[in-house]
Structures are given as C-alpha cells and as structure tokens.
Fold each of these.
Amino acid sequence: MTNSTGTAMPSWQNPRFGGKIRAALWLETEVGVGGVFTKTALRQAFPDDAQIDRRLRELRSYDWQIDTHREDPSLKQQEQKYVARGAEIWLPGQAAAVKQKASLTATQRAKVWSDDSFLCRTCGIGVGEKYPDGSSGTSQLAIARRKVALPNGSTEEQLVTVCGRCVASHDNEVGLADLLAEAALLSPIEKGTLTSWIDAGQRTRGTLEQVWGVFQTLPAESRAAIRAALQE
C-alpha cells in the first residue's frame, strides 16, 4: 500500500511512531476503508497502549471518519467502521501542518447528507448502492471539506458528501467565481433549463433532446423529411 505521494506506507508496528500514527496506519493496512472492527480487535493490536481508544478518536481531528453505532445504526455497540482517510499524519511535518478541526456531530453529518440528497457529489452514487463496475461491496458516504474559491477572491472550506472511493479527490478546489461567470453568459432559455434541473435535483430531457434522440434512429429519407419541415 502506498501514500498519496506514491511511496510505500510505513508499518503500523514501527515503535518509532506514537499511538495516533500507528492507529492510522493500522486502519489503512489492516482494516481498510469500509472495514468494520471492534474495540477488542483494536486493543489486541495495541496491547501496550492503554490510551489507544483515545488515540483513535483523535484522528477525527485530522479529517479521518470513523463511525460508531451512533452514526451508523447498522453497527453493533462494540463495532466501528473506518469510512474515510484523513490527513496522512505519518508523513514528516504533515500533522503539524494540518489545522485541527472539531469533529462533526451526528446531527451535523445528517444535515450535510440530507442537503446533498444522500448522494456522493463527485460520482453521484447513493448510500449502500453497488458500484457500476461490479466490484464487491457497497458505497459508504463520508463528509469532506472541499475548498471553494469565492467571487471575492477568498477561499473557504465547505462540507460536501463523498463516497469512500471519491474521498481522495475531496481536496480538489472548486472555482465558484468561474462557474458563476459562465452561468451569467447563458441565454434566458438555458438559464431556465438549468434552474429546472437544479430544482428537480436531476437533469431532465426536454422535448428538443427527445426529438433529437428519435431523429438519430430514423432512415435517411425520414431524416430528410424532418430537415425539410424545419425549413418551412
């Protein structure tokens, strides 16, 4: 397994690392994103660290998402699920460079998921759905902080729903100012169409697209008849 830099990930059993870093590496190499583990398994892996439960919880301050039965009712009392990787705190200087953020409450997570219609805003998959490529397992939703470039020139982090597969791309910056500028150039008809898609939460096919779709299936003689009719 490798880091985001492409280098080999260090061993979670390396005694040079503290409990927090070792817990992060253990999640990555032994549990894996989407994997469920118990407190007993965690303590058995770190028998000499009486504070390993606390070290694991501290990872949430670095954007690691580890759900309990409070966030995921399908989990049992002693179970936890590793949902998404956060900062790679085992890299030199990474932990110090990351601004620690307060963990989201269950209520805050639920609001973000609800606002995003329980869909990954990167690939569009819903919670618990199978991926189109036929791979085993189902999607798990996480919360990411996405950088958004605002029209006033500043950048802020906004919460967005992503799935376990797309969480690695959550740090891509979104240019809201550029998108607003492009939207302003749309014709009134295009703005109306886009507004209807936004309100419906999906792109709907209008009459023009439907006619075009059927037109493409017509024989040459019929296509010519349509073409001629449009000129009348």
Note: Residues 19-31 form the longest helix (13 residues).
Amino acid sequence: MTNAFTKLQAKRRSIYNLGKNVKEDKQMLVNLIEEAIEQSPSAFNSQTVRAVITFGEDSDKVWDIVLAELRKVVKDDAAFAKTEAKVNSFKAFGTILYFTETATVKQLENDFPSYAANFAGWAEQALGGAQQAVWEALSVQGLGASLQHYNPLIDEAIAKAFDIPETWQLRAEMPFGSVDAPAGEKDVMPAEKRFKVFGA
C-alpha cells in the first residue's frame, strides 16, 4: 500500500552524483529549507535545530575545510587521493550544515531534571526529523542530496569560517544539487525482522 506521503518518501535517496545544474532561485530554496526545519517537530517544542545554508564558493569552502582537516590525519598519499575524489564530489550547488543548540538542551536539563537524561537524545530526534523533511522537500523540487558526517573533525575550522556560535554543535553536512545520476536500488530488510503488530 502506498499513498502520496510514502511516494514522497521514496523520492528521498542518497544521491552521490550531484551537480550544479539547478534552475531554482536560491532565495526560494532558502525559504524552502527554513520552512521545512521550522515545521519539524521537537520534544517540548524546544526547537534545538540550527542550520547554515551555503551556496557556490561558500559551499565549496565547506568541503575544502573537510579536505584540509582530513589531510592532517590521512598521511598516505594514495589513500588521500581516493578520499579527495570522494569529498570533491560533494561540491555541488549548495551545502546545509546542521547543528544542535546545546544551550537549549542544557537549559531544559536544568528546568526538567526528571527528564534530564533524555534531552540530548530528543535533540537528535529533532535533528533527524528536520533533516528528513529538508531532504524530501529538496527531492520534490527534483534536487538530490546526501547526508555526511565529518564532525567533530571539522568543527573548529567550520566555526571559524562561518562565525558559528560556541553553543552550536555541528552534527552533519548535507550537500545538495542537481541529480546527475540516480541512486541505485534500495535494499529493504524483510518486514518480519523489523516490525511487530498486535491487535490488527
């Protein structure tokens, strides 16, 4: 069984062959991304998700920072050449940097001590919901994206380059752009290994 929503979900795939052939207006995309995040749920309506949206040279700068930081830890030239090719493939039309506002998390931990152990996890849930919403919103526009995680390796350099508040913790990087090659088939775990249903 499928409906309009599950069809929408199926459009959201990890696209690794991204390009810069995007016709949409940048401000329209900014509005789309911001609204997708604003409409995403968060525990206690805490709204802990933060985002930095970059285009063009600023987007490329994110991946130049990734390469510079990786070069410090990957000493083998042959290994780094493979890594460099992969990272350069993320230089698409834009990149979204996702953060958690840790000051809000800490404030909630103080205000609601009975739930204190849960707020960091709930912030991650909010982040995941926002990321999926943005990803699907981009896919409706015919754009592709993937979700990358080079944090905490790049945290300090990203914070300096984009004037990030100290309380924003980098959690993921999402390059997006035109779909220059579609994703392959998606393997799905058998339902009986993943779900339990009672009373149906």
Note: The beta strands are 18-19, 49-55, 94-101, 143-145, 168-179.
Amino acid sequence: MLLLMPHGSTLDLVQITDPHHVTPKLRRQLIDCWIAVTNSGGAAGFPFPPVLDDEVAPVADKLFGRLASGHSCLVIASFDRCLAGWVVLNRAPSPLIEHWATVNHLQTHPDYRGRGVGSALMRELQRIARDELEVEQLHLVARGGEGLEDFYKRLGWREVGRWPGALRLAPDDTRDEVLMILDPL
C-alpha cells in the first residue's frame, strides 16, 4: 500500500507473513533499525542501550521465524526502498483468545521520526487485524514514562491497566508497564 505523506513523499507499507520473505537485505535493515531505535532511547524491547548486532540479531531471527499467515505478520514502512519503521502483530492460536491480537515492537527509525511513520504503521496494522484476520480487539504493553500512552491514545487506544513499578531501568528509574487496548477496530 502506498500512502502520500503530509511532507509530499510516498510511504510504502508492506505486510509479510512468511519468514522466507524476510530477505537477507531486509533482515539487515530491520536489525539495524532495531539497534538505532534502541540506542537512541526508544522503548523497543532492549532496556539497556547501547545494544549491538550480536544481541539483537538472534531475537530478531526468532521473531521473524514465527511469522505465519493468519497468526503473525510483520508490517514494514519504507520511503524510496529505505526502511523507515516496522511493527509485528501476533495472534494466539488458542480458541479462547482468538478474537484478539497483540501488537509488538512498533519502531520508527530515528532518521524518519516525526513524519507519521508510526501512525501509518498502526493504522495499517489495525486494518489488517480487522479486515484480514477478523480480530475484534488489539492489545499492547507500553513502557511508562516515555510519552507512548499519549501517542497511542491519539490513535484511539485506551489504557486499561498498569503494572506499577514493573520495569527497573536503573536503581533510581522504575517505570510502569501500561496495558492498552484498541476496541472496537
């Protein structure tokens, strides 16, 4: 899907549901993005920057290896074939919770922040969840103290709970994990 962005450039959004479609070149870009996001202070799953390739690559490979049509997808955003960001949607296989899915690892490369990439990725993920997976609600967990709650609230998400003090980034820096839901889609 191509989107014309407010600054006049075109953002390309692509959904990947097969691990074999994560080419070596794309894998490298995704890992480099994850490293750049984390090392610039982003809450992207690695709490203690700086991170290096040998820390991120195995986690990324495991994540990409679990892609499966109908259950897990990766959505990437690119400007002129340069990776600008990505996000993962996971749906549990249990019939008890098959009506919802979890959003993980929303990332916008620092070079592309402020250009609507994160919002575009989340809107596309919502569309995929609703129209293709027939999911009724989306869940995510955000790190408190980063302003992420406000970002997600602008996109229609609401806070449904917190785990107070769940994350200890440093002896004097304890944060909440914020539980959020998007319902209905």
Note: The chain has four helices and eight strands.
